[in-house]
Amino acid sequence: MSYVNFVKKYKLEIAMILPLLLYILGFTIYPIIQTITLSFQDQYTKAFTLANYREIIGKTEFKQAFFNTIALTFISLTLEMTVGLVIALILRRNFRGKGLLRSLMLVPMGVPTLVSGVAMTYIFGLYGYFNALLQKLHIIEMPVDWASGGFKTLLMVSVADMWKVTPMVILLLSAGLESIPDEVYEASNIDGATAWQTFKYVTLPLLKPSITMALILRAIDAFRIFELVLVLAGRATPVISTFAYDEYRNYANVHTSAAASTILLLIIAVFIVSYLKIAGTKEER
Fold it and tell me: What is the C-alpha to C-alpha distance for residues 174 and 203, in angstroms, rounded to an integer?
């Protein structure tokens, strides 16, 4: 089949998919290639160099941003997987109001990240609801500045991120729980296993593929966190994405910003490759 005949035969399909291809090429592929290219260019001569990477690696701000990104991802994943698994196990049981609870659970997914970040400032602000609650319980005497930096700021952003994205984790784990046959639990019950033993030796091993998928997908997203950190913590607690933003927007360092973005891209690419390998292994089985 010639090229002309192919176009004539599939002209409708080509017309429908062309805008998407142009969007991906113009707003995803080309910017990525341009960013990687800039990261290896000298600012003045445009020659190939690793100076941009040496410059940002030598900066204390980048080291702090790198550490914060790893720590924030670890804390967020721990909270999301724990809360997500508990809620998924609850939703597996039949009880009154289950449908309503499942519907309410999905609400955070529909809230824009920027809006959820602003909403969280009313909770974790200096005179927010959380500080007011802690003072009423006599846990603290003076309001805590959760956005001042350090571990408490990472914890605050992780909790905000957990509220926003845990529904996705719940959906993934719920799908995994639904795939476990009831006969397995019946056999466990006949053998006299306790609820904890059933969870440890039956549910967790069979749920491992879904847990792995949820971990990798959430890790990819967690490394890209930007809006929540910018809204809740500002520049007090930088991550790689906000560091790259500051280098470009506030200091006009296009090449060092590109280098930081490329490092973040490399980290995310590792998790994407891991996800594709695991997904491929699961399909083969």
Answer: 12
Q: What percent of the chain has pLDDT over 90?
A: 54
Q: Which residues, listed in sequence order, are joined to residue 41 by a DSSP beta bridge? A: 48
How far CA 223 is from CA of 3, 74, 227, 230, in Å, comes to: 43, 10, 12, 14
Asked if residue 149 lies in contact with residue 235, where contact means CB atoms within 8 angstroms, the answer is no
Report domain extents, the chain.
61-284
**What 3-state class would DSSP assign to 41?**
strand
pLDDT(283) > 80:
no
CATH class of 61-284: mainly alpha
71 phi and psi, to 5 degrees? Answer: -65, -45
For residue 282, pLDDT over 60 is answered with no
Q: Is the pLDDT of residue 284 over 60?
A: no
- CA–CA distance, 265 with 32 (Å, rounded to integer): 9
